[in-house]
Amino acid sequence: MEKKIYASLNSIGAYVPNKIVTNDDLSKIVDTSDEWIQKRTGIKERRFADSTEATSDLATKAAQLAIKRAKLTPNEIDMVIVATISPDFLCMPSTACVVANNLGIINKPAFDISAACSGFIYLLYLAKSFIESRACKNILIIGAEKLSSIIDMEDRSTCVLFGDGAGAAVIGSSEDPSQAILDVRVASNGGYQEFLMTPGCGSRNPANAKMLEDRLQFIKMKGNETFKIAVKTLTNDVIEIMKNNHLTKDDIDFFIPHQANLRIISAVGESLGFPIEKVAQSVQKYGNTSAASIPMAMNDYYEAGALKKGSRLLLDAFGGGLTWGSAILSFNGE
């Protein structure tokens, strides 16, 4: 009888641009202040890529690290999937195709997905399916964003929130259930699409002078409405996935929610009863990096020496669409 195959998180890697943009820096561009930003978001600084760096460049550097840490070569990667809302090109080629070419991965499937801040959870969902169906042995998944290219620097309610960066992981196959991505849940509700969206440049509002004049090419967000539904949805989603897998907070080593807003992170963590030392908090130094935020936070734990082989992780995200998702998995890296 053929043995059961499990999808396994075998490595993590990340990359952030060199340029640090503080709240004081932004206060010189838009009507805001360090106190105003920190009080509402917890963010102190973020990274912005320069004009020579595209999303694929950030993704490539994170991917190179993840592949190296997985002790693989690029030709051992069977598929490349990138989650992004700030792709190199509006239509084609996909950012994943560009990244695969940069890495020397040829004649393999490569494609993008768009699930906003839930992107990395969606990537895990896809990779788990491909691995456990035996279609692939090693899949490179990347959450990467150059959000500085799609934020309106005249809108203080949104421009202070976002940053650039990338996080990557290699998902491999294992016969050991203790190494498995135990469960991934993803969902959406397009009825709330106007809460968080980029209205322009698509077929609904094609690129033209009027669209640019109205600044529809930039992220638009209804902050208060998004905050309220995010806290409720994230909390309920975690409670459900934990219950379905017969786990409690004591079974989790690290809770890594999407890094959007410190108030949301704190509210969800407190409602679930996680001690602060178990809850990832990197939003202060990176801002909201959308699909990249969870793997970037995971990489911070790894590089600090806290994330070790066998650590059990609970991931949780909520983003534009609206989309959301959660995952329970063990880290199988070295």
UniProtKB/TrEMBL annotation:
GO terms for biological process: fatty acid biosynthetic process; secondary metabolite biosynthetic process. It is found in: Cytoplasm. Residues 259-263 are annotated as: ACP-binding. The keyword Lipid metabolism applies. Its main location: cytoplasm. One of its GO terms (cellular component) is cytoplasm. The active site is at C117, H258, N288. Residues 243-330 form the Beta-ketoacyl-[acyl-carrier-protein] synthase III C-terminal domain. Residues 111-190 form the Beta-ketoacyl-[acyl-carrier-protein] synthase III N-terminal domain. It catalyses: malonyl-[ACP] + acetyl-CoA + H(+) = 3-oxobutanoyl-[ACP] + CO2 + CoA. Gene3D superfamilies: 3.40.47.10. GO terms for molecular function: 3-oxoacyl-[acyl-carrier-protein] synthase activity; beta-ketoacyl-acyl-carrier-protein synthase III activity. It is an enzyme of class 2 (transferase). Pathway: Lipid metabolism; fatty acid biosynthesis. It holds the Pfam family ACP_syn_III. Its EC number is 2.3.1.180. Homodimer. Belongs to the thiolase-like superfamily. FabH family. Catalyzes the condensation reaction of fatty acid synthesis by the addition to an acyl acceptor of two carbons from malonyl-ACP. Catalyzes the first condensation reaction which initiates fatty acid synthesis and may therefore play a role in governing the total rate of fatty acid production. Possesses both acetoacetyl-ACP synthase and acetyl transacylase activities. Its substrate specificity determines the biosynthesis of branched-chain and/or straight-chain of fatty acids. This is Beta-ketoacyl-[acyl-carrier-protein] synthase III. It comes from Helicobacter canadensis MIT 98-5491. The lineage of its organism: Bacteria, Pseudomonadati, Campylobacterota, Epsilonproteobacteria, Campylobacterales. The gene is fabH.
